[in-house]
Amino acid sequence: MNGHRQLLSYLSAGLTDESIARELGVSYRTVTRRIARLQEMLGARTRFQLGVQAGRRGWL
After folding, report:
1. Which of 32, 37, 48, 50 has the greatest number of C-beta atoms within 10 Å?
2. Packing angle between helix 28-42 and helix 2-12, nearest 10 degrees?
3. pLDDT tens per residue, range 12-54
4. HEC string of the chain?
């Protein structure tokens, strides 16, 4: 959950996937996979929906 929160925090701050990867010290592909996994977990088809769903769950 903590890793999800950090990733969501960077997304909500408007960082690009490339910037998020640098901040987390992982590859760009890892970031895109983690975002896709979060979207699947929360039933979100878009990043906007991901943010809304994460906010509703108190993850942000």
Report:
1. 50
2. 100
3. 999 999 999 999 999 999 999 999 999 999 999 999 999 999 9
4. CHHHHHHHHHHHCCCCHHHHHHHHCCCHHHHHHHHHHHHHHHCCCCHHHHHHHHHHCCCC
Cα–Cα distance, 29 to 60 (Å, whole number): 23
pTM of the model: 0.85
Residue found under tokens 């983690």: 34
Burial class, 30, CB count within 10 angstroms (exposed 0-12 / middle 13-18 / buried 19+)? middle
Q: How many CB atoms lie within 10 A of CB 3?
A: 10
